[in-house]
Amino acid sequence: MARKKKQRDALAGLLAVASPKVLTDLILRLVIGRPDVRRECFDFLKTHVSLTDELEKRSEGEVILALWAELAPDLSDLDEYGGGDYTTEDHVAELLDQIQNQLDSKKVDSDYRREILDLVLPYIESGNAGMNDMLYDVAYATCYDDSNLRSLAEAFEAIQGDWKLDHARRIYRNGTRRMVSEQCVGAPFVFAISHALAASANSCENHKS
Q1: Predicted confidence (pLDDT) per residue in 102-115, tens digit
Q2: How many CB atoms lie within 10 A of CB 93?
Q3: What is the pTM of this model?
Q4: Domain chopping of the chain, boundaries
């Protein structure tokens, strides 16, 4: 007697006959409150569909926000209690590193870069999470051009505090992310601002003095 054919997975069968709209609604419902699942969806779809430049930039930005949503609760706890256990710290550090890598791809839209910077700056201002180096790394990675870096220096000035002001001064004075990063946070950046930014910043300092 022939062995009975293995029955097809019922879920696979339902997915096969579902309309694109139903599948879209299902996925959007599943990712609510689950940033890790949302990120997995982006990672999967980006390798299976053709993307326009605009959609790719938006997708990269959404991945970054999903990564941040994953780490935000733990980072908040680290900031509140001045640190935490190694497992939590490693988890947050790993996700911050992934965010930086996404930003370093230079494919993230400016609106998303501004949004992640706004999320990072309060923790830089607090300086209590034990993640200062990586938070600064992410902040600098949001800067794709001279204007971005100038805005970051202004943000550091607005925060106040010796460490933040030192970052701002080094940006204005030296005109390179390499100098700022290696001397202040030890990150191996090789991004340089143009001479025009340095000249403009020096002019502003001279005017203030």
Answers
A1: 999 988 999 999 99
A2: 15
A3: 0.71
A4: 35-43+52-142, 145-209
